[in-house]
Amino acid sequence: MPFYVSPEQQMKDKADYARKGIARGRSGVVLQYGGGILFVAPNPSRALHKISEIYDRIAFAAVGRYNEFENLRKAGVRYADMTGFQYDRQDVTARGLANWYAQLLGTIFTESNKPWEVEIVVAEVGDAQESDQIYRITFDGSVNEEHGYVAMGGQADQVATALKEHYADRMSLVDALADAIAALSGPANGERPDIIASQLEVAVLDRDRPHRKFRWLTGARLEVLLAEALPAQARTAQAVPAQAVPAQAKPAQAVPAQAEPARELPAAKPGPSPEPDPAADEPGDAADEPGDKDPA
């Protein structure tokens, strides 16, 4: 006789299973900068990519199981090509692609016994930063529109908090890369301060590039950017403890205040002690009293 499991419990078990699988990997970040949108993900493999181009102005980033999000990437490329061929290239948008991904992942999550352990981001660069679009699609088909930056996979909440500390609108590519590396190398994402170019997968949607906006950052170009980004990150990290040193030195000023009670010892002068001597030299008064009794 089969056991009855409520639909709520089934959905909860599936969600917990997918979250645990996604959290086992390392996080990836997507953030806007003045010239476009930056994608950064720790990935030592040169064959398996977490970041990819989908269409002219649209890029894709994912974390989780590679075989599952690779199928999503291929399906997204086919969807974009068919839509652009049947209608117009301008009709292929990140919003439409995100909605299509949401329907696909929602159906898999509801009908399949095993949910897909994936989390993806679809981004589209516009003519201005205000027209950029970034969408985050989770394993259950939920769609969230993000502004400025987004972290996915692993300890995404802690990485997003680290991104927020240094993020600013219209920042340069070097500052954006420094912000991404600071967030990805923190304790929330494995704490690897010695990140090098061979361990990173970096790409951009370049707003000023004609036609196809997607561009990989590899080799010497990435080495130069890292050389400029890491000193900026180190200066930011050193500025915080440098301001805390004077605050810790203040308790040293309390030592002279404890030495003041030692000055009260001379204040207790022995001068008043001889005063009882004159009082002791008046025995006559005491002698007069018994003298009065003698005539009696």
Number of domains: 2
Helix content: 40-55%
Oligomeric form: single chain
SSE-based structural type: alpha+beta
What is the H-and-E element order?
A: HEEEEHHEEEEHHEEHHHHH
As a percent range, the share of strand residues is 15-25%
Residue-averaged pLDDT: 82
Within CATH, the superfamily of the largest domain carries the name Aminohydrolase, N-terminal nucleophile (Ntn) domain
Q: How large, in whole angstroms, is the Cα Rg?
A: 37 Å
Which regions contain 5 or more consecutive residues with pLDDT less than 50? 238-252, 254-262, 264-296
What top-tier CATH class of the largest domain fits best? Alpha Beta
Number of helix segments? 10
CATH fold assignment of the largest domain:
Glutamine Phosphoribosylpyrophosphate, subunit 1, domain 1
Q: Tell me the total number of β-strands.
A: 10
CATH architecture of the largest domain: 4-Layer Sandwich
| Broad shape | globular
Question: Could you write a compact summary of the structure shown?
Answer:
By secondary structure, this protein is α+β, with helices and mostly antiparallel strands.
Walk me through this protein's architecture.
The protein is α+β, with helices and mostly antiparallel strands and 296 residues long. It folds into two domains: 7-245, Glutamine Phosphoribosylpyrophosphate, subunit 1, domain 1 (4-Layer Sandwich), CATH 3.60.20; 256-293, no CATH class. Helix content is 46%, strand content 18%. The protein contains ten helices and ten strands. The strands form two sheets. A five-stranded antiparallel β-sheet has the order 8-1-2-9-10. Strands 3-4-5-6-7 form a five-stranded antiparallel β-sheet. Strand 5 and strand 6 form a beta hairpin. Helix 4 runs antiparallel to helix 5 and helix 5 (173-184) crosses helix 6. The longest helix has 31 residues, at 219-249.
